[in-house]
Specification:
InterPro entries: AcsF (IPR008434), Ferritin-like_SF (IPR009078), Rr_diiron-bd_dom (IPR003251). The chain is mainly alpha-helical. The protein has one domain (about 15-55, about 70-340). Helix content is about 65%, strand content about 5%. The strands form three sheets. A two-stranded parallel sheet has the order 1-3. Strands 2-4 form a two-stranded parallel ribbon. The radius of gyration is 20 Å and the shape is globular.
């Protein structure tokens, strides 16, 4: 994971939408009982041990060329894409590595699953950081480890958020891969060729967190859990939508319409989540994406104000209020009850 390329970037600008580093209640995590689902965890562990992508993340000759032909805006947005992705993968590596260490004594099967997932995340982060090196930049991951602020999430929130993060990552990667497979003229950089196998790592990680959730029915089968599932679904979808709205030029550069891409990813992730969560969001309601569009518009206005040296809090308040109001409208939309009966474990 050590990097030697220059210049080395040690800081990542943080906003509300920036990938975060997480910590949790390790004692509570260690006390979780998975015995009712142990066979499922053993099967998942065997898949992790197989390490299907052991030989996948190897750079080939296509990387050995200049990328100066990319226009300035596309280059800048692509570097930001690599940076954000690397930060998110490295965040997962740190959390999973620490969980594997803390759970070894009490839950060795789960601990080894976390260890092997941390292996995958480290591999992804290293591959992304090497890609940044092709643009004469790299992240100082050791510095990020020591200086980045950590957000505390209770175990159940880690499960909700990370399950969704892994599943939405799968749908993002596979959607881009299939698009570029059909339109290779838009593949501006060879890393996209790796997305098909890459997203299978994300999918396996998501299946592991689905198993953890199913092993803890108290996280799925009561009124509070339905509210939390609703909250995390909306949070993950809105974060992606607002981020991608600001970076539509990047998606245009690879031949995608960012709005249509996000709509497809949200629909697929929502469908996947409905197999585990007790509810899913009503993404077919015509107001759902209309409200998201309004949120994205007001968020872009706030970004614009933040980039202006003479902007004031008074200017931002109406945009903040409008953004918050539309998020509330989204949250209050009636969700769809899941038909999945596996979540109720006697």
């Amino acid at each position: 994971m050590q990097v030697t390329l220059q210049p080395v970037k040690s800081e990542v600008k943080e906003t509300l939408l920036t990938p975060r580093f997480y910590t949790t209640d390790f004692k509570e995590m260690a006390e979780l009982d998975i015995s009712k689902n142990q066979h499922e965890f053993e099967a998942i562990l065997e898949e992790f041990r197989a390490d299907y992508n052991r030989q996948h993340f190897i750079r080939d000759e296509e990387f050995n060329q200049s990328w100066d032909s990319l226009d300035k805006e596309t280059r800048s947005l692509f570097i930001e894409f690599l940076e954000r992705s690397c930060t998110a993968e490295f965040s997962g590596f740190l959390l999973y590595k620490e969980l594997s260490r803390r759970l070894q004594a009490t839950s060795p099967i789960v601990a080894e699953c976390f260890l092997l997932m941390s292996r995958d995340e480290a591999r992804h982060a290293g591959f992304l950081n090497k890609a940044m090196g092709d643009f004469n930049l790299s992240l100082d991951l050791g510095f990020l480890t020591k200086t980045r602020k950590y957000t505390f999430f209770a175990p159940k929130f880690i499960f909700y958020a990370t399950y969704l993060s892994e599943k939405i990552g799968y749908w993002r990667y596979i959607t881009i891969y299939r698009h570029l497979e059909q339109h290779p003229q838009h593949r501006i950089y060879p890393i996209f060729r790796f997305f098909e196998n890459w997203c299978q790592d994300e999918n396996r990680h998501g299946d592991f967190f689905a198993a953890l959730l199913k092993s803890q029915p108290q996280f799925l089968n009561n009124f509070a859990s339905r509210l939390w599932c609703r909250f995390f679904l909306l949070s993950v979808f809105a974060t992606m939508y607002l981020n991608d709205f600001q970076r539509s030029s990047f998606y245009n550069a690879i031949g995608l319409d960012s709005r249509q891409y996000d709509m497809q990813v949200i629909r697929k992730t929502n469908e996947s989540a409905s197999r585990i969560f007790p509810i899913s969001l009503d993404v077919d309601n015509p107001y759902f994406f209309q409200y998201l569009d309004k949120c994205a518009k007001y968020n872009s206005l706030l970004v614009q104000y933040s980039n202006e040296s003479n902007s004031s809090i008074a200017q931002k308040i109406p945009a903040y209020c409008s953004l918050t109001l539309n998020l509330i409208k989204l949250f209050l939309m009636t969700p769809i009850a899941s038909q999945n009966t596996e979540i109720i474990i006697k």
